[in-house]
Design a protein that fits this description.
7-stranded mixed beta sheet; alpha+beta; 25% strand; D-Amino Acid Oxidase, Chain A, domain 2; 26% helix; 21 strands
Amino acid sequence: MRIGLAGAGVLGRLLAWQLSRAGHAVTVFDPAPGPQAPPTGQLGAVQHAAGFTAAGMLSPVAELDNAGPDIARLGWRSLALWREVADTLRAEGCTTPLFAQHGSLMVAHSADLGAARRVLARLETAPTLSADLPPPRPLDRAALAELEPALAPGLHAWLLPGEAQVMPREMLAALAEHAHGVDWRWGCRVERVEPGALHIEGLGVLPFDLAVDVRGLGARTKPTPPRPNTVRPEPVEGLSHSGQEGLQQAQPERNALQATDLVSRVRGVRGEIIWLHAPGVNLQRPVRLLHPRHRVYIVPRPGNLFVVGASEIESEDRSPVSLRSAVELMAAAHSAVPELAEARIVHMEANLRPALPDNEPHTHTEPGLLRINGLFRHGWLLAPALVQDALVGTGLPPAPLRGFSPPVPEGGHSLGPGEARSSAVLVNSPH
């Protein structure tokens, strides 16, 4: 089958890699100048995929703090899928580290223990936690010191078994490099995607058997009014377990919208991260510092690097990281890992995550067309499961990964090309 794919972010590269391995002729169009990540130190000089500006945390249990159980289920499935993707890429010759699974930690200072307990209460009362996901495991001070000696003594801590991380830049590069036979059209902007056709700026309409739209913000057809910079720490204390009370009111409106109308309302949510270089600091797993106003995460990377982030800002400003964010992020990281005091700041980066009105992903299929958008802060967490379900929904099951078989939809059969599916989140039971 001839497949035209608009967008080369996490979803686009994962789809191109999967579909090319299944024997399809895939052409990918993206306005970026090439597959490589932007050089560090270029603060927003070049627009690039949101997946590059990410810590790569795969934390389905921790995300129950500000997302619903469907997100957690999809994320838990994706943990196994990312491991299989990394193993398959390694078998195909990739030698760079792509995936690590040592669990993750939630920690809190004594003064913030009340906020931490409210977070734990939300996680423990989530409907699917006891059935599908392992609960957080409290650690005493001796156990924490043995597990992560670099963390500050006196922190309260909980281990989240099974959680993991991907290396975003390395994974994006590997997916592009090993998507053999894919025709990558860099520097090409897709203006519109419709069943069986992509409208390419300067090239006109190109026909395909299947048109795939995973452009994120690039899929928006209507400009949005400017919004003031509003910091929304993640999450805000006092909200429901999803962290999104107001978004529940958007669901009826979403259900009444057609897929194209919904995607046209995608908005950008600014995120900021800081890279630190700290030789000699030993941290094995991602750490999330719980605080009444924000959840600062510290994620170790190969090469003595640490990624620190947390902010969600309701703004489409792509300018460099703000002073406020930089000070808060680094102060919080230093309070949790005192040895970072002598770390060197090597990079700061801001980017926009694509989000829909309810901050949940949307997958739409109809004959000749597949759209996925609105992954918000869960791009890396959800991508493999969303791709797997979407391909089954279009009648194009992906090529098997190493020992992993695709799910079968309800009813026991794969949807054919003539059957349409449109849903906010496609969910299958975890394997």
